[in-house]
Amino acid sequence: MTTPAPDPIPALPSTPSDLSLVQRLRQRYPVRTIVLALIAPVGAVIFAIAASALILALGGHNLGDVFTTMWKQAGKPTQFVNMVNQAMIYYLSAVAVSIGFRMNLFNIGVEGQYGMAALGAAYVGGQITGGGPFHIVIELIAGMVVGAAWAGIAGILKVTRGVSEVISTIMLNAIAINLGSYLLHRLGTTSGNNIQTKTISSSGRIPGFAYSGTQTKIYGFLIIAVLVGVGYWFLITRTRFGFRIKATGLNEEAAVASGVNVKRLTLIAMLMSGAIAGLVGLPALLGQSYTFSQTAQSGLGFAGIGIALLGRNSPIGMALAALLWSFLGQSANQLDFIGVPREIAAIMQGVILLAVVIAYELVRRYRLVLQQKEVAARLRTPGPTTELAVS
Amino acid sequence: MAAVELAESSAPGADLAIQVVGVTKRFPGVIANSDVNISVRRGTVHAIVGENGAGKSTLMKMLYGMQRPDEGEIRIDGAAVAFHSPADAIAAGVGMVHQHFMLADNFTVLENIILGSEPSSAGVLNFAAARKKIRDLSTTYGLELDPDALVENLGVGDRQRVEIAKVLYRGARLLILDEPTAVLVPQEVDELFDNLRELKSEGLTIIFISHKLDEVISVADDITVIRRGKTVGTADPKTVTSRQLAEMMVGSELPSPETRSDTVQDKVVLSVAGLTIQDSDGRAVLSDISFDIHAGEVFGIAGVEGNGQGELVQALMGIRSINSGKISLNGVDITRLSTRGRRVAGVGYIPEDRQRQGLLLEASLWENRILGHSDSEPNIRGPLIDRAAARRDTERIVREFDVRTPGIDVAALALSGGNQQKLIVGRELSGRPVLLIAAQPTRGVDVGAQAAIWDHIRQARASGLSVLLISADLDELIGLSDTLQVILRGRFVATADPATVTAEELGSAMTGASTGAVA
Question: Model confidence over A262-305: pLDDT tens digits?
Fold first, then answer.
């Protein structure tokens, strides 16, 4: 039997070695791809600004005043440092959430995981005196282990009993709040009307970076946050493990057929997510408060879910989203002084999220249709229909 | 081909229940419909036949309001209609019986039938009225349904009748049956055909979609053949032969999948002994299956879908746990090995449903190249993915397997079915597999891609590959296999010699009509 004469196949891109780096990049990331990637988040932010402007206008506020106040506020040194510090915390939380998101695993429990982990790290750190740099390392490990263990409960329930991780992590959040409070009473000491863990000695603290014009320092934890981001990027895009996570997220049935042990991967992803969640409370603990108390910041785990969504689980995207989130939160502090309710920032955050989720879905569908059309157009050269030689 | 005449739009005024005139539907990248013309006489069974992927389902979706034609017209009782949703189609008296049943197991027949159009008075369900209506339907059309039986206790044939009753309950005068016999055993097929004749005699019109030609000839009054999205002709079931129909379906001449040179070696590659699998109710899905596949041998399994083939494939791939038995690959016991371990040991897998089990539709072609091969060269470098090498190898597959694509960065979703399948075949034949499990390797692909895939399987066989071939296409099975087994209700019931057996003989063995050695 002879095979039919091949049709004129549309030219494939030449082999990479024939092209310069710039050409290769252009071929792999055409302008359209980049535009499509940016249009959803940028559009959502513009939409949110317009929506908040409408609300402000309805309330009789001066739009220009509000936006200039917010912008100026973020430019002041102290506020700028606060913004960066807060963004780094948000970022860690978002990375923790996104590890699960990548494989359609919804870890809603970062909130509880980081709470337990911060308490654990503060307690362990407070027990140690001396030890040099190992003191910090032990604190980090303590935070990650506690976070991973707490998330691991949901992971084990999921793979052994099929319990939805959404439900179990939400319930574990409630347990964490009360258990944390109980443990704090048992482990901590009362000072004034606050209960706190033993203060961490100097070797267990991470020194900050000075920023001119303010006494407030940028947390030294920034370096660790950047390393987490780079590590996350590398894991997801470059490793076999990351490929399996991606494959499972895109099509679990195909992943199973291709040899992915989804249960094991689920457990590992949950543990990793929890370990990163365990770092969320540490920038403030090791860079500012040096002790865990009831006044520690809450709500970071939930913010992380929104930021991961806005940043599309991308290491860079989530960093930008964390900065935006933190900018809105910090700059709104000043609004009370000009008689504008600061809740407008929360409204903007909410509108951005809603808009971006819708916009991403629209862009995703549009991109696929566009690609199908393009492929169909490139291949329109009609091939022979059924003229096959039969031996 | 005296029995075959070209499709012409029938003379207006004839008593036509439904007429499709010049309908065209375009989709990016897939075969759709182009200038389809069909005229269905009232009170007849009209069969629409065509290969998988010929455009039958697109046509049905348009008739049932799930999609809208780009051009052309659908006329019901002579009047043009434009359905925007299945609800419109139902209102116009068109009902669809899907291939896969859409029934709630823990509901009774009655509850399933009325679900979505519950009769009520003042907000209270009126079961008595529904029960009476269902009993009436059941006697009028000979459906023999007990309204109060739980659906989970019903067999496949009964379930199908519930689906039909569901459609009739909503007042359908035109029934579309999409591959209704795919899931039925022979007696059930006969019963279904009796039901269809009953419906016909009551004046209902039936559109029967199938690619099983013998069935079509036995039940239909008219036949329309679709090929590559076009209506290529009509045929009279009283005079046409299945061979003639098949030729209309695939073009002037059938491509032949024949492999006649003997490449079977002595070495046993896959050895399965006493494999038994039970479903959750403890019923045996596979009973004591044993066979060997040698190097260079294509081992074909024929059978009506749902007789244990799917479970066998899953067990061999390690996706499904088995109750007892032993599986060895090249003499090594792999019974307890994970799917990943079996992949690494050299088992390639072309899954039955490429989109659900074989591809990451939204990922690029080169990422799809890595799927299932993320533990083997050339895709990896230690624990890392070697992107450059994976991309290079994807370009090789695109070239050697003639995957029609503008590049390897497009999403797999953008390719047509045949090209997706060629990519999968190329991937699974890469890296020197020792065993290829090929389930429906050419389902839904065009004839050109089919011939190419056959060629590649033949070449790999010649170089010593063992192949387990499961296919619904009997010509493919007969043409490619060196050994043929017939599976029925989880057992091998007959063996056939592919050199001498005919599709007809094989087909009758599949229904249990003959056992032992066929031909």
Answer: 999 999 999 999 999 999 999 999 998 898 988 888 889 999 99
- Interfacial A residues in 192-221 facing B (CB < 8 Å): none
* Contact residues, chain B, for A256 at CB < 8 Å: 319, 339
pLDDT digits (tens, 9 = 90+) for A12-58: 444 445 567 777 666 666 777 778 778 888 888 888 888 888 888 88
Answer whether A76 touches B (CB < 8 Å).
no
Give the Cα separation of A203 and A210 in Å (integer): 19
Q: Which residues of A touch B358 (CB under 8 A)?
A: 254, 257
Q: What is the pTM of this model?
A: 0.75
Q: Please check whether residue A109 is in contact with residue A151, taking contact to mean a CB–CB distance below 8 angstroms.
A: yes
Backbone torsion region of residue A194, taken as left when φ is above 0, otherwise alpha when ψ lies between -120 and 50, otherwise beta: beta
Joined together, the tokens standing for residue A175 give 């347990």
Partners of residue A254 in chain B, C-beta under 8 Å: 351, 356-360, 371
Q: Please choose, from the candidates A121, A108, A152, A138, the residue with its C-alpha nearest in 3D space to the C-alpha of residue A290.
A: A121
Facing residue for B413 by CB, picked from A10, A372, A390:
A372
In angstroms, the CA B361 to CA A249 distance is: 12
Please give the sequence-ordered ranges of beta strands (E in DSSP) within B82-156, or none if there are none. Answer: 94-97, 120-121, 124-125
Classify B232 as helix, strand or coil: strand
Which residues face B121 on adjacent strands?
B124
Which is it for strands B94-97 and B79-81: parallel, antiparallel or unpaired?
unpaired
Contact A246 B363 (CB under 8 A): yes
**CB within 8 Å of chain B, chain A residues 275-294:** none
Fill in the amino acid letter for B169: Y
Q: Are B203 and B141 in contact (CB under 8 A)?
A: no
Cα B484 from Cα B477, distance rounded (Å): 8
Q: What is the spatial distance between Cα B311 and Cα B175, in angstroms, rounded to a whole number?
A: 33
Tokens 């005699």 correspond to B201
Chain B partners within 8 Å of A3 (Cβ): 451-452, 455
DSSP letter (8 states) at residue A295: T
CB contact under 8 Å between B255 and A390, yes or no, is: yes
Find chain B residues with C-beta within 8 A of A376's C-beta. Answer: 28-29
Asked whether B434 and B269 are in contact (CB, 8 A), the reply is yes
ipTM value: 0.79
By the 8 A CB rule, do B137 and B55 touch?
A: no
How do beta strands B347-350 and B435-439 pair? parallel
Residue whose token pair is 């440092």: A81
3 state SS of B318? coil
Distance CA(B21)–CA(B450), nearest Å, equals 30
Distance CA(B420)–CA(B374), nearest Å, equals 19
